[in-house]
Amino acid sequence: MASLTIRKLDDAIKSHLRLRSASNGRSVEEEVRVILRDYCEGRPATAAPAPTAAPAQSERPTAPQAVHGEARVTLIIGGGIAAYKALDLIRRLKERHIDVRCVLTRAAQQFVTPLAASALSHQRVHTDLFDAGSEFDAGHIRLARECDLIVVAPATADLMAKMAQGHADDLASAILLATNRPILLAPAMNPLMWNNAATRRNVLQLRRDGVAMTGPNAGEMAEAGEAGVGRMSEPTEIAAAAIDMLRPPKPRPLAGKHVLITAGPTHEPIDPVRYIANRSSGKQGFAIAAAAQAAGADVTLVSGPVGLRDPAGVTVIRVESARDMLDQVEAALPADIAIFAAAVADWRVASEGAQKLKKTTAGMPQLALVENPDILATISRLKDERPPLVIGFAAETEHLIDNAKAKIARKGCDWILANDVSPATGVMGGDRNTVHLLTRKGKDIDVDSWPVMTKEQVADKLVAAIAKALEESS
Ligand SMILES: Cc1cc2nc3c(=O)[nH]c(=O)nc-3n(C[C@H](O)[C@H](O)[C@H](O)COP(=O)(O)O)c2cc1C
Asked: Among 142, 210, 149, which residue's Cα sits nearest to residue 171?
């Protein structure tokens, strides 16, 4: 059977195919397959969607996040196979109301045409450093500075090497060297290129220079039979990363504060294979750690055994038992704020079996229990290193507020978050929580009852309350 080489088609047909495939978010090859299938199945040929057409509702992101004001991106398209996806990226950025100006490297023009980029961006496309038409007023400097963000997609191994070395011998590298704007790279290359020692050095250097990156992802390569890390992030992922960088920086009310948090259950060993535990999932404590980190705090999270991923930017210390947890909490002091969200086991087995307990004819083993250290009370009563704000949790199944008020007094902490953990509430292990914030005000205790929320919302509200208290006390 004859094979079709797209490269050998007429330029006009190639250009049409590229535009059409980019508009439909497919590769050129996939687009040709769709056209042929439609033809064979007798479906009427559909015209290439106009580059300016709004995307069909079904292919729009559910909630395109627009940046406020007129954000402007200079998009540098490098010479890699993934360049065709950069055309889709232009659409994704534009549907988020971002103005896009494209620069194509010489190599990029082997993969996509300036015409396609220009039609999709509705702007003139720039390709040459020595372009009399735009360099009469140093156009490369304008492209470098008259934008809010520079995105390089695909960022080739070659472009990254040039950036890391500070080269400026073509328009793309000159813009990247002359800019004072943030830069987001979407690397794309063969896995061997990505893993090459030279590329590793360049990536490290660029990260040190403050350049942001999205991807590359793992997956199949364009080269037949090859797979690994090197695929460019999808256009929607790159657009989301760009939006994040374009947003005004979030307020960081806990900047400079060390927040110490405990989370999860503890496991109290009975013997080498058995333990006493509870149903805590750790989700609430992990959500608080992520919220405090997002608010600028330096966060240490001491967690019992849970199946949750470490929140980004948080120092996570994994422990098993209540005694390990107390040791690690004490080692992490001093802290400005301590939040004890862990469901620490009250008791442990008095003498842990050195070997697995066996069934014997002598009857059931008798497990004598002893009390575990009380972490909240221990830290609340410290003389020298007591954190200025100590917050406990009261997980109760009855008389919630009364028990929580008694707990504040008994433990000597400043605030308590009380929640009903009766099985019917689904709080233990679930994603939602209904809490009451009890705060000590002199001799009185204020109770603020929050509506049912996700654990992330509870975390955000708690962090906001902490930030407000810090502001009021300063
Ligand atoms: C078919 C083909 C595909 C290529 N794909 C990539 C790629 O995905 N990533 C990459 O870093 N280089 C790739 N290259 C090599 C670059 O095109 C080459 O390094 C070029 O100099 C990059 O120029 P630029 O960085 O100025 O765009 C490819 C080359 C060819 C011929």
From this structure: 142
Catalytic residue among 190, 195, 196, 278: 278
- Residue with the nearest Cα to atom 31 of ligand 1? 80
Band (64; pLDDT cuts 50, 70, 90): very low
The verdict on whether 372 is a catalytic residue reads: no
By DSSP bridging, strand 435-441 and strand 444-449 are antiparallel
pLDDT on residue 358: 86
pLDDT band at 138 (very low <50, low <70, confident <90, very high): low
Which residues, 6 or more positions from 359, have their beta carbon under 8 angstroms from its beta carbon?
none
Is domain 258-347+368-473 in CATH 3.40.50.10300, yes or no?
yes
Backbone phi and psi for residue 73, each to the nearest 5 degrees, phi listed first = -120, 135
Which of 20, 140, 134 is closest to 84 using CA atoms?
20
Give the Cβ contact number of residue 342 at 10 Å: 29
CA separation, residue 141 to residues 117, 145, 168, 216, 246 (Å)? 21, 6, 12, 29, 20
Range name among 89-103, 370-384, 441-455 with the lowest pLDDT average: 441-455
Q: Is the CB of 221 under 6 A from ligand 1?
A: no
68-246 belongs to CATH 3.40.50.1950: yes
Give the rounded distance of the alpha carbon of 198 from its chain centre.
27
DSSP per residue, 283-318? HHHHHHHHHHHHTT-EEEEEE-S---PPPTT-EEEE
pLDDT for 147: 93
Q: Are 59 and 136 spatial neighbours (Cβ–Cβ below 8 Å)?
A: no
From-to residues of CATH 3.40.50.10300 in the chain: 258-347+368-473
Nearest CA to ligand 1 atom 14: 80
Helix/strand/coil for 47: coil
Q: Is the CB of 188 under 6 A from ligand 1?
A: yes
User: Average model confidence (pLDDT) for the chain?
Assistant: 87
What are the φ and ψ backbone dihedral angles of 453, each rounded to 5 degrees? -145, 170
156 CB near ligand 1 (under 6 Å): yes
Residues of the chain within CATH 3.40.50.1950 domain(s) are 68-246
Task: Report d(CA 131, CA 125) in Å as an integer.
Answer: 12
pLDDT at residue 49 above 80? no
Q: DSSP character for 424?
A: G
Question: What CA–CA distance (Å, rounded) separates 119 from 399?
Answer: 67
pTM of the shown model: 0.54
Q: Is it the case that residue 133 has pLDDT exceeding 70?
A: no
- The stretch 350-363 carries a mean pLDDT of 87
